[in-house]
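Much of what follows relies on a compact textual record of a protein's fold. A complete example follows; check for yourself that the lines match position by position.
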Amino acid sequence: MFYHVKELQYQAKPERPDPLMAKYLQELLGGQAGEITVMMQYLFQGFNVRGNGKYKDLLMDTGTEELAHIEMLATMIARLLDGAPVGDQMAAAENPIIGAILGGMNPQHAIVSGLGAMPSDSVGNRWRAEYIAASGNLLADMRSNLHAESHSRLQAVRVYEMSTDRGVKDMLSWLIARDTMHQNQWIAAIQELEAQENIVVPSTFPRDLEKREVSHVLFNFSAGNESATGRWANGPSMDGEGTFQYVENPVPLAPKPKLKPAPPYIHDTPPSVIKGQAGGIPPSMY
C-alpha cells in the first residue's frame, strides 16, 4: 500500500521564473539517470525480492523516497514556468546569436503540459522503461543502483553549477545530499553481499564449468600496453580464485570458420522444383 501526504519532503521554491532552468531540471526528472528511473528501478527490484527482508525494505524505502523527489522537481518546474515571460523569451530567440546563447525554453512546456512538468528529459524525449535494471540478482542490482546514483548525482551537481537561483540551488543541495546517502548505502549493501557470496555475479554458477584458463586474463586487444601496469593485470584476482595475467600479443584460438552455402531462397526457385524435392517444404511456405 502506498499513501501520499500533501507536504513536500523538502522545499522546492525558486526566487524567480526561469523557463530555461525548468528545461534543465527535466533531465533530472525524466532523463535516463533521472528520478523516474531510479524510482522505478528500486521499486521493481523491491517488488521482485524473494526473501532477504532487509534488502527488500531498503529498496522500498529508497524507491518510495524517489517519488518524493519527483514531486519536488515537478513542483519546482511548475513554479519556474509560472509567470515566465514566454513571449519575451521566444522573441529574444529570434535573434540567431541570442537564440544560440539561450538555447530556448522547451516549447512542450507551453504547448503540451500547460506550464507543468513532464515525464521526459531536457529535450523532450519521453521516459523509457528500458532505462531500468531489475534482474532478480541482488548483487547485480545493487551495482546497477550505484551506477544510477553516481550519474544522478553527477548531473544534479552540473545543474547546480548552472544555476544562480538560490531557491533552485537549495533544493538541488538537498537532492545531492540524498544521492550521497544513496551511493553510500548501495556500496554498503554491495560489500555485504560480496562478503556473503564473492564478487562475481552470479555466484551460484560452478567455476569448473567455465574455461578457467582465461578467467583472470587481460588480453591486449588495442595498440599500446599501458594497461599492463594496472592492478587488474597483476597479482591475486579480486575474487580470490586466481592470479591476474597479461597477454600482450593474443592469438586466435580457433580456425577461420567455413560455413556451408545457404540453401536456395524460395523466391529464386520455381515452385514446381521445390515441390518435387525429396522432403519438400510445407505448402504454407510457397
